[in-house]
């Protein structure tokens, strides 16, 4: 049995303003209504695969749970990382988890933010790699390069034409001249960051090449405990782990590493220009997501979130409009979006941190507007879900039900609100919301007061 382990960390700052710290690129539903995370989960499902092990950031836990539920997938484990520690610790954690279930388990370790156009080619490569992994090899997957890309690490293959090749060397991200030479010689492939190995092989590799890290992770895994649908680890112990990639920790040291080269129409979609490259285009090469219009434009990209975007007389330009931010850039400058994000972060701007929509265990909230002494947000409460009993020291609230049936409790008094009905919550009142029905409740909340930040909450249950 192959246990997929899906790595769901990362931010994807070059896809700002859509990608943010609380909703990074792997969770953006911009590919036929599905996210890259969801596409990855579906890609490694079915016969021969267990339910996935998902490893991701604590701040994204409800987002991961929500997106798994949307595709009717139950994870074997959703393991939460208090802080990012690169790919080596998850590689061993997945091996230890799978080994507990099956000492002969294979782990397919893969990022959640890659797009694969030819999934049959990918699955054929996994099939070939399976036998090698069962024999004790650690298999890395290489992508046949299509351009002299300087943004990827490379793997130099040993001569041959077999579906599984020996690895001559791992190569750091090259300059342009070396990348052109790699493309011409045919002996180099892009390092996709995807691995297949047996649990016992990886456990032994860590004991051999990273004994201190192996001991620390093994001890850390003994601290794991459940929290709702998630699994937590000791935060101090996790933070103390070495921040190191699986390539540096194991792959460049081990003598049992092989590579499965493949050409599955792969892209890590690390920029808006890469997104443009995989989208459908009109006769002038323009691509749109959402409600967008082009006039006398050529090879442009427009993203429109909840509003119309019109682009006139431009070429090779990207216009990304979200509810609170707009990015306009030439496609040649797509990599520089990260610099804008760094500048905004230095200014303490919240637009890099928070997406207007925030997922909760009970549903989500989405900011609509805010100003001096007021804030407006929409809310969705799932069937059967309830918010905690709480009060606020500095704000009052007004609720308006848009659809569904909402049970409200204000200072111990319980009542029902249906469509177009409203309620007022005075400052300091203890209150909670509950959806007793079978359809989601959609509502508008208006907050008013002297202080409207999220930390103005006193929880009573």
Automatic annotation (TrEMBL):
<dbReference type="InterPro" id="IPR001538">
    <property type="entry name" value="Man6P_isomerase-2_C"/>
</dbReference>
<dbReference type="GO" id="GO:0016853">
    <property type="term" value="F:isomerase activity"/>
</dbReference>
<dbReference type="InterPro" id="IPR051161">
    <property type="entry name" value="Mannose-6P_isomerase_type2"/>
</dbReference>
<dbReference type="InterPro" id="IPR014710">
    <property type="entry name" value="RmlC-like_jellyroll"/>
</dbReference>
<comment type="similarity">
    <text>Belongs to the mannose-6-phosphate isomerase type 2 family.</text>
</comment>
<dbReference type="InterPro" id="IPR005835">
    <property type="entry name" value="NTP_transferase_dom"/>
</dbReference>
<keyword id="KW-0413">Isomerase</keyword>
<keyword id="KW-0342">GTP-binding</keyword>
<dbReference type="InterPro" id="IPR054566">
    <property type="entry name" value="ManC/GMP-like_b-helix"/>
</dbReference>
<feature type="domain" description="Nucleotidyl transferase">
    <location>
        <begin position="4"/>
        <end position="280"/>
    </location>
</feature>
<dbReference type="GO" id="GO:0000271">
    <property type="term" value="P:polysaccharide biosynthetic process"/>
</dbReference>
<dbReference type="InterPro" id="IPR006375">
    <property type="entry name" value="Man1P_GuaTrfase/Man6P_Isoase"/>
</dbReference>
<feature type="domain" description="MannoseP isomerase/GMP-like beta-helix">
    <location>
        <begin position="295"/>
        <end position="344"/>
    </location>
</feature>
<dbReference type="InterPro" id="IPR049577">
    <property type="entry name" value="GMPP_N"/>
</dbReference>
<dbReference type="GO" id="GO:0009298">
    <property type="term" value="P:GDP-mannose biosynthetic process"/>
</dbReference>
<dbReference type="InterPro" id="IPR011051">
    <property type="entry name" value="RmlC_Cupin_sf"/>
</dbReference>
<dbReference type="Pfam" id="PF22640">
    <property type="entry name" value="ManC_GMP_beta-helix"/>
</dbReference>
<keyword id="KW-0808">Transferase</keyword>
<dbReference type="Pfam" id="PF01050">
    <property type="entry name" value="MannoseP_isomer"/>
</dbReference>
<protein>
    <recommendedName>
        <fullName>mannose-1-phosphate guanylyltransferase</fullName>
        <ecNumber>2.7.7.13</ecNumber>
    </recommendedName>
</protein>
<keyword id="KW-0547">Nucleotide-binding</keyword>
<keyword id="KW-0548">Nucleotidyltransferase</keyword>
<dbReference type="GO" id="GO:0005525">
    <property type="term" value="F:GTP binding"/>
</dbReference>
<feature type="domain" description="Mannose-6-phosphate isomerase type II C-terminal">
    <location>
        <begin position="348"/>
        <end position="459"/>
    </location>
</feature>
<dbReference type="GO" id="GO:0004475">
    <property type="term" value="F:mannose-1-phosphate guanylyltransferase (GTP) activity"/>
</dbReference>
<dbReference type="Pfam" id="PF00483">
    <property type="entry name" value="NTP_transferase"/>
</dbReference>
<dbReference type="InterPro" id="IPR029044">
    <property type="entry name" value="Nucleotide-diphossugar_trans"/>
</dbReference>
